[in-house]
Amino acid sequence: MTTVKHVKIVHPNFGEVLNETFIDEVQFKIFLTMVHSCLELGNDLSTYNGKNFLLHVPKEMLKQCLVIGVEKEMSVSEIVVAKSKLEG
Q1: I need a labelling partner for 79 at 20 to 30 A (CA). Which of 4, 6, 66, 86 fits?
Q2: Which residue range forms the structural domain that includes residue 29?
Q3: Which candidate, 9, 5, 7, 8, places its Cα nearest to that of 22?
Q4: Which residue has better confidence, 52 or 82?
């Protein structure tokens, strides 16, 4: 069994702003810490991985969002099926 971590940011008017999945515990913690810091310090949430993921959420919009971080146990076969649905 593998633990899969999800971060979901939902805005009441615009719907789902972000739905990101992590398998690496460190990346999950860093991302949640970054979101928490932006909320606490009143900063925009901006990140770019240098390749294919760019996110910018203005602080006014971020303050209105619901942020959910969840861990879920999944088997390897469930992960493969989920990835194939995303790529499909």
Answers
A1: 66
A2: 2-87
A3: 5
A4: 52
The pLDDT score that the predictor gives to residue 86 is 61
- What average pLDDT does the segment 48-70 reach? 91
Give residue for tokens 């939902």.
Answer: 10
pLDDT at 87 over 70: no
* Nearest in space to 10 (alpha carbons), one of 69, 54, 50: 69
Q: Following DSSP, what letter does each residue of the chain receive, concatenated?
A: -EEEEEEEEEETTTEEEEEEEES-HHHHHHHHHHHHHHHHHT--EEEE-SSS-EEEE-HHHHHHSEEEEEEEEE-HHHHHHHHHHHH-
